[in-house]
Amino acid sequence: MAERSEDSEEVKLLGMWASPFSRRIEIALTLKGVPYEFSEQDITNKSDLLLRLNPVYKMIPVLVHNGKPISESLVILEYIDDTWRNNPILPQDPSERAMARFWAKLIDQQICVAAMKVAGTIGEERDAAVEETRNLLMFLEKELVGKDFFGGQSLGLVDIVATLVAFWLIRTEDLLGVKVVPVEKFPEIHRWVKNLSGNDVIKKCIPPEDEHLEYIRARMDKLNIKSA
Amino acid sequence: MANKPILLDYWPSMFGMRARVALREKGVDFEYREEDFSNKSALLLQSNPVHKKIPVLVHNGKPVCESLNVVQYVDEAWPDKNPFFPSDPYGRSQARFWADFVDKKFTEAQVKIWMKKGEEQEAGKKEFIEALKILESELGDKPYFGGDSFGYVDISLITFYSWFQAYEKFGNISIEAESPKLVAWGKRCMEKESVSKSLPESEKIVGYVAEFRKNNLGSE
Lengths: 228, 220
Prior knowledge:
Chain B: Keywords: Cytoplasm, Detoxification, Transferase. The complex is a heterodimer of chains A (228) and B (220). Chain A is 55% helix and 7% strand. Chain A is α+β, with helices and mostly antiparallel strands. Chain A has helices at residues 20-31, 48-53, 73-83, 94-120, 123-143, 157-169, 173-176, 187-197, 200-205, 209-222, and strands at 11-15, 37-40, 62-65, 68-71. In chain A, a hairpin with a 2-residue loop joins strand 3 and strand 4. Chain A is built from 10 helices and 4 strands. Residues 3-8 of chain A have low confidence and may be disordered. Chain B has a 4-stranded mixed beta sheet, with helices on one face. The termini of chain B are far apart. By secondary structure, chain B is α+β, with helices and mostly antiparallel strands. In chain B, helix 1 (14-25) crosses helix 6, helix 4 packs antiparallel against helix 5 and helix 4 packs parallel to helix 6 (152-158). Classes of the chains: A alpha+beta (228), B alpha+beta (220). The interface between A and B is medium-sized, with 22 and 24 residues.
């Protein structure tokens, strides 16, 4: 935790313990040593605070800094990088920054959606969703060749965003009953997950495995999705 | 001149237009290349193997894909002229939020108006008007979304202005009635050369959509 001579900066995060979008903000703040207050939100019964701070989407995460709210996880991550300049998560070079943003969007807009389809479908539809997810992940697989992390030698934006793949997709494969990301097809991604799992910031900020799996199992039961 | 950037584009694309506006705002001399989707160029397939979509900006041999990435890249690669973002991190975050809103809500809704008919189109119209009102409220009485200067959010949205006439005709709505401030803002932006040079005439877009609807929906 960074020491501050004046306690004028107030950072509050409205989040949810099992959400990958909320956890990624915690990773970024922790990486930069920014102290913050976490406010667990019940997304099934949204608080007035949440509705007031994010009237457009009414979703977590919302970062509040010096009383001003920022919504949308990728926007928040760039704000954090702009504001606390130590341990940068985006590269300096404009074309590398563009690539990082590209991969982050791919993960959120396509990989995440495809993975959710895997969880929510059966039979042929599920097979198609698995294939789609794998095709997209193959691009990430190639990106990792020769690198410890997407960010190179240290965690970057794409690593932080891709924790979704490591700890929400791969981690839940047994529950899903399908190995979406088999190690034979994705050796680089599995190597990267090992690197992530050994990283102190990541270890501190991801949901504890047993509780996480229990939560997902309960959700799947509630939605009548067959869990393995 | 070595490093003249190449823009792979498609004339009616509001996403491609964003890249054009951004480059012109910075006074960058670029080579415009029209892509034929039935016969995509080797450069496009090589530069954007993931999506195979335009716009792609190829600069110093390196590709930049996705229109908002291109706009941000242009701002960062040519930082000395007409910055697209305010200097304070909070202002920047709000600009990113609203450009992302345009991409999320506005884009999805407008597509239903020109590409669909019947119930799907009606649903699109509702979403579109809702998004218009939210954007109108965000603009308020400012001359631009960026405040006094034309910026990132303006660039992200202004390109749809060339499509307004098409939305009105095929969606049977009056954008002026729903969001007069936005229409005034659109006209204001069109006075900028970087914008007027980058957007096709509305009539051409109307023709494009008419053709699409005839070929794909069986009627206009």
